[in-house]
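Follow-up to my post from last week.
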Amino acid sequence: MVGDVGDLYQALADHTRRLILDELTERDGQTLFEICGRLATKHQVTSSRQAISQHLDVLEAAGLVVTRRQGRYKFHHLDTRPLRAVTERWLRSAEPTQENP
Amino acid sequence: MVGDVGDLYQALADHTRRLILDELTERDGQTLFEICGRLATKHQVTSSRQAISQHLDVLEAAGLVVTRRQGRYKFHHLDTRPLRAVTERWLRSAEPTQENP
DNA sequence: ACCATATGCAAGTGACGGCTTGCCTATCAA
DNA sequence: TTGATAGGCAAGCCGTCACTTGCATATGGT
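User reply:
Got it. Predicted complex:
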């Protein structure tokens, strides 16, 4: 197996990892160095390259990121399908605008 | 303010807290003792009452649970509206059943 | 071959989170 | 008032997590 249910929520628990998902949403298929650069310039993330690499490993284990090697580059692609589990678990029957008595 | 964006994901990061949300989805407005009982019998959660109480505090800080006092009882109600932030952040343009090439 | 680029592996550290333990407060019924 | 029920506060322990540091591997250009 590639990861249990808890890995998804664990992956989302970190601020930097959520920023990585934001960046991949804006521009899919970036390399590690591209992501590092964007996090530093746009979000003032001062973490080292290894830290970002470890974050990407967590995101990949959660199924939110899939990687594709090409030569010495490794491109990271976003996969938002696991996120639907969140919606389907608790938002099933709730109405968007519900009044409380 | 009642909590920043990160509190929501932090609240979802714990397994026991997700089980609490499950139980409140199935039966809304339970007391602390009711939740403790259901977690113990249905999910083999051996945590103490104080542990569950602290979990409920985290869920309330994240805006996922709202409480209502009545005498010596404190009823916990589910509010799933904060969960929509997850959908709107990363699932904006993705289609529900999308094929990958 | 040589060097720069792009990434990987592994050990160590500091802080935060989940849990327990112990005691305290508040409400209701007899 | 007394006792039982429902919940709250606070300190401490321990494991996990994010991060750094140092070194290693692999690809591409010259």
